[in-house]
Amino acid sequence: MAVRILPRSPLLRYLAVRLALIIPTVLILVTVVFFFMRVVGDPITAALGGRLSPDQLAARRAAAGFDRPILNQYLEYLGRLLHGDFGTALTDRRQISEVLVTNGAATLELTVWALIVAFAVGVPLGRLAARHRDRLGDVSIRVFAILVYAAPVFFLGLLLKLLFSSTLGWLPASGRAAPAVALELQNVTPRTNIMIVDAILYGDTGNIVDVLRHAIMPALALGLLTAGVFIRLIRINLLETMRADYVMAARARGVSEAKVVRKHAFRNALVPIVTVMGMQIAMMLGGAILTETTFEWQGLGYMLTHYLLARDFVAVQGIVTAIAVVVAVTSFLIDIINALVDPRVRY
Asked: Is the pLDDT of residue 263 over 80?
């Protein structure tokens, strides 16, 4: 008698397969990162070589276990990861888990702001381009989408700083908040490390405005990159949807073109946006490294650059591993949303 392993429901079977794929995906990523970091040598020598004597280096290597066989180090590292231990930075002795919580909140905040910009810019322009296909407005929007997608995020950030900070003086050039505001928000209880949330909890309108002003340029630099993708996806899928039979039937009933687009075509055109959302979030995390460095936004990307320059490969390994886990889990959540929105993906 055959034993049924997967559930009968197509939705549950789809989600079970996707969930099962997370484990090997994360394991492969962790393995690649671990052995790639070891190619450059042991982390103690890489981070502290030249500052300690050979005897001190040997003692530190032995204490950290880096003188043991590489396979033993790998298995021990996997064991620590299962207990949520991502290691300790060699340069500043911070727990990587603390870095992930504190600086990860900053990256999360920047990603949310960037997504807001991407939707606010990409969705209306994509609809507008589809409604005015092959006209001047459509061509202009398509050129804009190509430019913001192709422009390096750090170059776009530098242009924004040059225009809005150096030339016009409208916005602050760097940081997440003014030093005085950041100092005040450190006393918020409970503190979330998400500046806008802490500013709201503090209850000072001036602090909220200051945090928002600091977030505008980084959000634009990172969000416009994704907006370019959204514009092209929405335009293409909206044009395809508007040729569907049910849209033609709505037009035949005398429904206005604006209502046809809004009520019938646009909702189905959004399905591909959900499909690629996981990939875009992964792209944003990669872009956050350059964005945070450009604007001195102290998130995970900023700290990753700091530890790379310090050759602190233990910290780099921990942060990259955590980002890989976040991307894998986010992709799974997007798969769930995609399956709920579009039943075709379940089969």
From this structure: no
